[in-house]
């Protein structure tokens, strides 16, 4: 069930109803999967900014290969036509970014009740925020929700991670870049380069 909910908001009560068990049991199993590094619970960003924010974490099966096996996706062609492709890419990007960042960089997501959303929000040790939108398209387009979220939070960097190989500007303050480039930047920050 977690695989089908890849990248969705965690709803333990719904899982409990579907499986016919107690919510505490579901939460215990999810805690175990998190402790075993099989599942990531990505916490929502929150602060007192006067907005109604989503408070449930997102849940991801951390290993793309395991996710694809759980969903019986045998090959690349099947994956490309599967409805989970976007969430699979999003999790792959989030995992790589969070592994490249130091332990004092906090990862979260931002979503308001009004539809403002950022896929990954990095809180740097100095308090700066990096807003990261994840798109599987070779020509990424940003939705209104990303711009609204950036207006709420005023991040110091706005980045769109996409599967291409070139870095370019989508707007004067928004850069599109490959996953490799952002992980390299985080690695260099960690090493003080």
SS class:
alpha+beta
Radius of gyration: 17 Å
**Could you tell me the number of beta strands?**
9
SSE string, helices as H and strands as E:
EHHEEHHHEEEHEEEH
| Structural domain count | 1
Based on Cα principal axes, name the global outline: globular
Report the top-level CATH class. Answer: Alpha Beta
Q: What is the fourth-level CATH superfamily?
A: TBP-interacting protein, N-terminal domain
Q: Can you give the mean pLDDT? A: 92
**Helix fraction bin:** 25-40%
Strand numbers in spatial order across the main sheet:
4-5-6-7-9-8
- CATH domain fold name: Trna Endonuclease, Chain: A, domain 1
What is the number of helical segments per DSSP (H or I, 4+ residues)? 7
Walkthrough of the structure:
With 193 residues, the protein is an alpha+beta fold. The protein has one domain: TBP-interacting protein, N-terminal domain (Trna Endonuclease, Chain: A, domain 1, 3-Layer(aba) Sandwich), CATH 3.40.1350. The strands form two sheets. It has a six-stranded mixed β-sheet. Helix 1 packs across helix 2 and helix 5 packs parallel to helix 7. The relative contact order is 0.13. The model has no long low-confidence stretch (mean pLDDT 92).
Question: What's the gist of this structure?
Answer:
The protein is of the alpha+beta class. It has helices spanning 12-19, 23-35, 64-70, 76-80, 85-100, 144-153, 179-191, and strands at residues 8-9, 39-42, 58-61, 106-111, 117-123, 129-134, 157-162, 168-171, 174-178. Helix 1 (12-19) packs across helix 2 and helix 5 (85-100) runs parallel beside helix 7 (179-191).
